[in-house]
């Protein structure tokens, strides 16, 4: 049996709960509308950043040309090793090879933290001339001929 006092309290709580629920849905609708607005702006910002990114950029010159050397960090992850030829003193290995460096000429201001470049843009950006010492075969079999490059803010 519900007492009259408890019944009044439950009835009094309903308007407050309804009002809170109403404000919550209004808030969610506003966030949803803001997200759609940002989605419309995003491609325009992205295109503008890419258009201005290479203005006056010369990919023949290393970053900081005339100043200190450009430090290039490399990661090599060996996925397979072999076969090994004792007679020829040769071996074969498959690796993931990643290079990282800072090119201040590509700094940009914008809402996008990371820019992933397509293959056309990658050819316009300076990349290190990496080589492997004592390499028997100067040509490498690249299983992924398309470079994967991203710019981080």
TrEMBL record:
Question: Where does the Neurotransmitter-gated ion-channel ligand-binding domain lie?
Answer: 47-145
Any Pfam family matching the protein:
Neur_chan_LBD
Coiled coil region boundaries: none
Q: Which InterPro entries match?
A: GABAAa_rcpt, Neur_chan_lig-bd, Neur_chan_lig-bd_sf, Neur_channel
Please, which domain of life does this record's source organism belong to?
Eukaryota
MF terms (GO), sorted A to Z = chloride channel activity; extracellular ligand-gated monoatomic ion channel activity; GABA-A receptor activity
Protein location: Cell membrane
* GO cellular component terms given for this protein: chloride channel complex; plasma membrane
Source species of the chain: Oreochromis aureus
Q: What is the gene name?
A: GABRA4
Please report the record's description of how this protein sits within the membrane.
Multi-pass membrane protein
Its chief place of residence is: membrane
What keywords sit in the KW lines?
Chloride, Chloride channel, Disulfide bond, Ion channel, Ion transport, Transport
Q: What is this protein called?
A: Neurotransmitter-gated ion-channel ligand-binding domain-containing protein
